[in-house]
Amino acid sequence: MTERNTVARMMHDLGLAAWFGGSLMGAIGVNGAANDVSDPTDRARVAAAGWARWTPVNMAAIASHLAGGALLTLANRRRLAYQKGVPGMTGAKAGLTGLALALTAYSRAKGRQVEQAGRTPVEGSTEPAEETPQQVARAQQRLRALQWAIPAVTGAIEVMNSYAGEQQRPSQQMRGMLARAGQVLRMRAAT
Fold first, then answer.
1. Residue at 1 is within a domain
2. Backbone angles phi, psi at 85, to 5 degrees
3. pTM: predicted TM-score of the whole model, two decimal places
């Protein structure tokens, strides 16, 4: 296995790192700093402005991660077909990636609702005040959960990346391919 996929791996890993790190920093840094704004009618607006500035970078990071993942899947298609454990790990990782994409898109939609509300009084960037309009309050409540869900899911994808890297060790490939071959032989013998 002398083939290298450095560019694809770089796109995949750096894209995920930015997606994970940006979402975690936003929850702690952007939202936390906005909560320190003294005027309650500026808190949500300041947080929304920070997230809006991050959105194009986040989209580029996600696109890089997805493109790198597609290239790595193509490069490892033989392992995907012949190494036991790889299809399951790849499917689980794809499922988590789909979930992270959905959460990120939903979060941006809810963030836009808060952003479009303008100077609305709030306790914090994800905490409504009594005077906060109901639609904005609901969006903030969802954003409170999403701000932690996105880094949790993207962090889980990174854990899966670590596991996938271990599966690429020559000893693991040989063991997985022998196990897969044994499984195929047993299936054929049973029919």
1. no
2. 95, -30
3. 0.84
